[in-house]
Amino acid sequence: MTRDPDIQTIFEVADDSLQGVMGYHLYAIACQRAVDKGKIAKHLPDDAITITFDWKRYYSEEELIDLLSSPFFELVQSRISLIATTSVFDAALTKFIRRLNDMRLIDRHQLPRNYRDRIEWAYRASLKSNVGRKETLERLPMTFGMLDNARRLRNLITHNNGIFDMQYETSAITSDDIQVQLHPDFERFKENPEELIPVVITSEELLRFIWAHIEVLHVLHNHLQKTFFGVDDGYSYEREEKPIEWRSMLLGGSKVRISFKDHVI
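Above: the chain's sequence. Below: its structure in token form.
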């Protein structure tokens, strides 16, 4: 039996993209730590920033530089990387489900309606997997708890200006033995709901979130290929002869020469 090429492509695109987010995150953090703060201002717009085709807004270079210097840069970058991580993973789940539905391999009347439903669908499917390391399969309740926590933190960042609210807890997935995880700062919010408590994600926490998404992606892909297409062997970078390819991960793998500001790659 051979793997379904469309399912594998969905997996590989998401896998590369998640590792690309990780590579970019690590690079951005390294650049911030190495940069000469005193030289940043000369590379920023003078006095005002163009925000539409017609509008400009005046701003403080000093305030922007201070807020994006250590340690605050790490917190801002981690938020951005978390949004990218959840977006990539949700897109992969959506495409997996669409492919299986197109092939009439799943009940179209029970298709997941939103990201939360898609995570639950992926969890129920992954629990049936017996392909992969025993430790990886045993920690699925934890890794899926991390996925759901990342989803809810993403919602706070994109819908509530990165401030905790009660929906962060009440919207958690509590079915199927997924381990509900709550950010430690949420307790501060519960003690004083009137206080604006921001979501703070360290670089180390962000990397753990990405690890969880990559790990689950592999388990789910292996399960789909075995269940629907009869492929027993799990995906292996070594067997696929697939090294880390930063061009593919960061620029989409196109072989076309890219020209940008007098640079060609």
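The chain is about 55% helix and 5% strand.
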